[in-house]
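// run 5 | inverse folding | seed 20
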């Protein structure tokens, strides 16, 4: 099986590419099957808006105004690049018809998200280069002077110097307002400021908007909370409380053993911090919601079993807190063969996890082709199904997930060849819905239904890129995307610069059916595969060492299983402590023989929170954290 020729995320941008100017000839393009209504709200030469997680670029406020931000490449090669803003009022009129207005006047502003607060004021976040004392980019937040005016004041976040004397590029910000009207911002370090492919620190900061002076003030410094290998972090806040949730990717093996060098960018779990009051986020209480099993060579010569889990999270997730105050994460996985050090983009899935049902992983969308079949390459940093964006209808409580899926029909590819020799496929926008809190999802409907002609020349493609959806679904899903006229990621030397429309797309929920449901027939963990034994029933009868495994499920409510291994007969004590160090439960105590053992812990009498479970045998002990969510 050939190894995928992915490009690693370096933070660098190569903007030298061919150019074709409008007007563009239309050849066999069908746009008659679009579900809902579309309107052009702006334009850009810079088609791909984010390198991974998109965040929110469209929101609807309490006065029924729709707000939009995007990265506008004003010229070819995107030398002039700025953040633009537009809105649509309740009567359907745009603030700046099919154009928008600039948010900042700095150098190379972009990679923007937004939130809306204070009775309709838009707050875009983005990064920019001021060019006064440093040529590095820095994260910033702007605020409109008054609602729907478009006269923005720009406030750069504090610079980060540690651990280097020079300022770091802490960029790609995501923003959300919490219910106490604090600005919550997360951002990621640019590896281009270090070495390409280096681990990137992740940062969190809060800001305060002062209406009387139209000012934004920040904490004195950012909080560095973890590091990552992808641009995937996201933040969510609650409308029902001050709860804040942050989600990000972290590699299974931080030692990066793969000889290809970029394996750590494929090989990720998702970690989540949920803070109920939002007062003082303690990232030490974050927990792993995916817990993929790394390769296990003890299964040789059975290489299939030795691979263990072959799902991994890539650079793509979306965090959301629903009206009942439950946190949700939608995320994309690709198939990985960890022992071989290879990965495939065509076998991709979009999953859902929730705080309400933490042990369940449900499939939102499948693009799970035979991994040995070689689909057309989707382009840098892309997989076949990706970019989920969650929202909720408050009148029904139903969840909706919008996502992108590439049309890999080989008769609908661009003329520009990829490294495979084929042209690039075009993106389509799909929507799925769940009526049971995310346990089951309807088969997504294609709401764009655009068809790229065979061997489409630049200007003749129809590829929906960087889709994002507003959190509020109020009888319609509010979606925004770029309609790229030449498939591929142009700043990564894929395709041609074209002049592209920024589209606002409304899809009535009456057009989205609750059935048929996506078949939940792909196991999330290898231990769920029929024919293999469940942990504790003999699979690990020959233990490798004294070992305490992560409880499963984790988070849990109210019961979870804990497995441990012994090389010899031992007197065992397994106890549970709270974070104050107080013993709150004794799970088991007694003599156990060699081998693996599994016990069940029922936490019915405990309150939600992080606990530590500790295995003690003689002078040896092991401990792990677990999260109880009720």
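// decoded
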């Amino acid at each position: 099986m050939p190894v995928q020729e992915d490009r690693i995320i370096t933070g660098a941008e190569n903007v030298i590419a061919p150019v074709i100017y409008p007007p563009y000839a239309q050849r066999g393009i069908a746009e008659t099957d679009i579900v809902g209504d579309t309107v052009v709200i702006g334009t850009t030469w810079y088609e791909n808006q984010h390198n991974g997680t998109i965040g929110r670029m469209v929101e609807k406020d309490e006065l029924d105004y729709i707000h939009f931000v995007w990265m506008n490449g004003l010229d070819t090669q995107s030398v002039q690049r700025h953040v633009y803003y537009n809105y649509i009022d309740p009567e359907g009129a745009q603030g700046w018809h099919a154009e928008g207005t600039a948010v900042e006047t700095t150098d190379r502003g972009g990679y923007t998200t937004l939130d809306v607060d204070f009775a309709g004021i838009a707050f875009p976040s983005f990064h920019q280069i001021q060019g006064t004392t440093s040529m590095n980019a820095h994260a910033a937040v702007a605020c409109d002077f008054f609602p729907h005016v478009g006269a923005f004041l720009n406030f750069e976040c504090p610079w980060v110097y540690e651990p280097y004397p020079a300022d770091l590029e802490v960029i790609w910000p995501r923003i959300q307002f919490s219910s106490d009207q604090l600005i919550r911002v997360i951002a990621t370090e640019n590896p281009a400021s270090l070495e390409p492919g280096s681990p990137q620190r992740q940062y969190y900061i809060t800001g305060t908007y002062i209406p009387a002076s139209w000012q934004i003030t920040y904490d004195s410094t950012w909080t560095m909370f973890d590091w990552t290998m992808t641009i995937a972090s996201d933040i969510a806040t609650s409308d029902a409380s001050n709860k804040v949730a942050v989600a990000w990717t972290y590699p299974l093996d931080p030692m990066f053993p793969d000889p290809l060098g970029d394996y750590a960018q494929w090989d990720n779990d998702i970690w989540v911090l949920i803070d109920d009051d939002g007062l003082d986020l303690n990232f030490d209480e974050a927990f792993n919601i995916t817990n993929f099993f790394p390769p296990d060579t003890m299964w040789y010569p059975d290489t299939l079993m030795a691979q263990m889990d072959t799902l991994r999270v890539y650079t793509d997730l979306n965090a959301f807190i629903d009206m009942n105050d439950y946190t949700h994460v939608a995320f994309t996985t690709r198939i990985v063969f960890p022992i071989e050090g290879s990965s495939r983009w065509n076998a991709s899935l979009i999953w859902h996890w929730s705080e309400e049902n933490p042990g369940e992983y449900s499939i939102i969308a499948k693009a799970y082709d035979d991994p040995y079949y070689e689909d057309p390459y989707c382009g840098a940093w892309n997989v076949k199904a990706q970019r989920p964006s969650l929202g909720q209808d408050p009148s029904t409580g139903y969840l909706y997930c919008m996502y992108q899926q590439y049309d890999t029909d080989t008769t609908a590819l661009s003329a520009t060849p990829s490294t495979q020799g084929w042209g690039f496929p075009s993106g389509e926008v799909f929507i799925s819905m769940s009526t049971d809190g995310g346990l089951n999802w309807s088969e997504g409907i294609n709401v764009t239904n655009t068809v790229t002609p065979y061997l489409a020349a630049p200007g003749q493609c129809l590829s929906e890129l960087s889709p994002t959806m507003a959190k509020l679904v109020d009888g319609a899903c509010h979606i925004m995307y770029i309609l790229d006229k030449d498939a591929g990621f142009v700043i990564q030397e894929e395709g041609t610069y074209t002049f592209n429309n920024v589209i606002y797309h409304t899809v009535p929920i009456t057009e989205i059916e609750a059935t048929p449901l996506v078949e939940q027939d792909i196991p999330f963990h290898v231990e769920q595969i029929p024919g293999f034994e469940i942990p504790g029933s003999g699979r690990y009868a020959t233990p490798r060492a004294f070992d305490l495994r992560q409880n499963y499920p984790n988070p849990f409510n109210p019961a979870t299983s804990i497995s441990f291994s012994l090389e010899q007969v031992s007197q065992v004590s397994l106890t549970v402590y709270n974070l104050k160090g107080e013993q709150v439960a004794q799970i088991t105590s007694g003599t156990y023989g060699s081998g693996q053992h599994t016990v069940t812990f029922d936490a019915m009498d405990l309150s939600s929170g992080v606990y530590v479970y500790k295995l003690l045998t003689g002078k040896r002990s092991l401990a792990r954290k677990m999260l109880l969510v009720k």
